[in-house]
Amino acid sequence: MSKVIHFEIPANDTEKVVSFYRNVFDWKIESWGDSKEYWLCNTGEDSEQGIHGAIYAVQGDSKTTVNTISVGNLENFVEKIRQNGGEILQSRMVIPGVGYVATCKDNEGTPFGILQADPNAKE
């Protein structure tokens, strides 16, 4: 079975969006080469489950992929998202046996999800 191993987040203002993800999730993000058009995102230690990705400058029409990001405390991240210019589209929802999820937008309107894992989650 194939697994997702990379993500890309489109942005009109890459530096603005880079700042958002650094501030909210504490990702290490660096431009690739001398370009401000493509930024590599290191989302955590390689020994941790998850993937790395990129933020890139939109060229023409672009469709977006919604990625879900694991968080330790959903409510804390909802607040951080709002403080950094993001928006909550769907507040805390229980996924029984999985955890708690919210759907959000970053400070440029790109949707993403956050998930607080909890195998004991109940409605």
Structure commentary:
With 123 residues, the chain is α/β, with parallel strands linked by helices. It has one domain: 2,3-Dihydroxybiphenyl 1,2-Dioxygenase, domain 1 (Roll), CATH 3.10.180.10. 18% of the residues lie in helices and 38% in strands. It is built from two helices and eight strands. Strands 1-4-3-2 form a four-stranded mixed β-sheet, with helices on one face. Strands 5-8-7-6 form a four-stranded mixed β-sheet, covered by helices on one side. Strand 2 (28-31) and strand 3 form a beta hairpin.
Task: Give the SSE map.
Layout: E1 6-11, H1 14-25, E2 28-31, E3 38-42, E4 52-57, E5 68-70, H2 74-83, E6 87-95, E7 99-105, E8 111-117
Parallel strand pairs: 1-4, 5-8
Antiparallel strand pairs: 2-3, 3-4, 6-7, 7-8
